[in-house]
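Lecture notes, unit on binding sites. The following record was shown on slide 14. It pairs a sequence with pyridoxal-5'-phosphate.
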Amino acid sequence: MVCAMTRPPLIADLRSDTVTKPTPAMREAMATAEVGDDVYGEDPNVNALQNELAHLTGFEAGLFMPSGSMTNQVAIAVHTRRGEEVICAEGSHIYEWELGMMAAFSGVVPRFVPAPLGVPSPEDVRLAVRRSVHQSPTGLISLENTHNKAGGTVIPLAVLRQMRAVADAEGLPLHLDGARVFNAAVKLGVDVREITRCFDTVSVCLSKGLGAPVGSVLLGSAQAIRQAHRYRKMLGGGMRQAGILAAAARVALREGPARLADDHLRTRRLARALVEAGYDVDLAAVQTNIIYARLPEAERRAAAWAEQGVLASALGHDSVRFVLHHQVDDDALDQAIRVLTA
Ligand SMILES: *Cc1c(COP(=O)(O)O)cnc(C)c1O
């Protein structure tokens, strides 16, 4: 650990889009938020946030939770029974970065389908459905849009609609890990509903690119959300005067989506600068606000950049991730590019 006093001035924190600090408007909303006990359903800001997001995405109801991992795992619990399989794209957050919780909490296991650039094929998903008495039956199909580990890549609408058709034909529920679904909507140039309407439940993070300090919302039918209440409580996610958080999240929801296009432009600019400087970046995978570069000695390089005020995530020993967000402006990006390409 570097002592805080000796740390260089921060130029850009590109480790994740979760690192943003609440804006003055969010601080103000938090300080003045009317609150109530949300476990009794009495917090006006939580209720308003859930309703606003449900309206935006075309669902009957929503449920505020502390994290996207919790909204995903609650959705899995709602849709599945013990011993079933969840079909998901390789590299899916619900398995890769949620600590085996689908097994630990819901007693289900993942069945992966290949997903070049984060996009599984509907036919592969259909073929992965299992029903025989000798196999663990499929309980759920789960997609991720944008796909984090594939590089913030987007599933096209045509594929989403085919996935819906597969789910309908097989009688299976379809969940979206939409932590960054607003980034996907911006990239596709469509209203977010065009994406969310294909799913039975959608999990949305307010604390990624939208910029809220904390929180995610699970969206679904009134019945699904009634069940979700029970699992949220089991996981310790009943948060009482959570309106302080929801008030900030409501500001994020109002102001965040319109800013994402700028994040995507800056991401392209950084990716091109990295490629020109000889970095190994697959530009086809750079579609929204995330860049992965293959880089020998990634940890040592990231530590050296940190000494100069640019933070990135070293993942394993040969890969590094850069994520853009609204608190890296053009000026900060120029300075960061100088450090990264020196
Ligand atoms: C960040 C993220 C989540 C949720 O992460 P939390 O840290 O639990 O909020 C879920 N899915 C994807 C794809 C993510 O990137």
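Take-home: DSSP finds 13 helices and 13 strands in the chain.
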